[in-house]
Structures are given as C-alpha cells and as structure tokens.
Amino acid sequence: MKVTPEHNERIANLKFFSVYPHYLSKVEKKGRTKEELHQVITWLTGYDEAALAQHLADQVTFKTFFEQATVNPNAQLIKGVICGYRIEEIDNTLTRQVRYLDKLVDELAKGRKMEKILRS
Asked: Domain limits at 93?
C-alpha cells in the first residue's frame, strides 16, 4: 500500500496526546503496564518521563513530538506491516517514525519480550 501526501499530512497533524490513551489501553488490556509502554516510547524517542509528560500536557502533534525526539538509531531494525503499510517501504520520515511507534506498541501488546521489542 502506498502512503499518500494526504495521509502523511494527516499523521503529522494528529495530536500525540489523543493517540496515547489508545496505546495505553491496548497494552493494559493485554496485561502489560504503563511503565512498559513508557520504556518503549523512551527507547524510540530518547525522552525521559518528564519530557514525555510535558509533551502530553502540551498536546503536541506527532510532527512536533518526533521533531524534538532523538530517534534511536536501531529504530531502522523495526520492520513489518502495520496498519496495512510495510514500514521499511514508507518514504516519509515522520510517517515511518509514527509507524515505528505503532509497531512497538503492537509488539508489546502481543506479549513479545522487551529485549526483542527494544532490538537489543
């Protein structure tokens, strides 16, 4: 499936704080914790708890969220299909980073071991 410019724009303008509760709900329903979710987000973005909380409070868009992040160099090891898109084929950097996060949350919810999720 090809990512369109409209899709990229929609992703960029989506508010991180509005998606975060869905991430949390998804992992908690499967027996994982908020702390594990934060560990995954921290690994991908380089944010600490305070920075993550501030981004949630400021209601930033995904564009701002990832512009200010220091994306983990091992993020490129995240591969597969998420939401019908093959991650490694997404050419828009921001959309690919958002899909990285989606994939990590999916793996966490599916019970994958943290060492594998964090590509260590």
From this structure: 5-115
Give CA–CA dist 10/25, Å, rounded.
22
Domain count, the chain: 1
Give the pLDDT confidence of 91-108 residue by residue, as tens digits. 999 999 999 999 999 999
Concatenate the DSSP letters of all residues of the chain into one string.
Answer: -PPPHHHHHHHHHSBHHHHHHHHHHHHHHTT--HHHHHHHHHHHH---HHHHHHHHHHT-BHHHHHHSS---GGGGG--SEETTEEGGG---HHHHHHHHHHHHHHHHHTT--HHHHTT-
120 belongs to a structural domain: no
- Residue 104: inside a domain: yes
Percentage of the chain lying above the pLDDT 90 cut: 93
CATH number at residue 92: 1.10.8.290
- For the question of whether the overall pTM of this predicted structure is more than 0.70, the answer is yes
Tell whether 78 is covered by a domain: yes
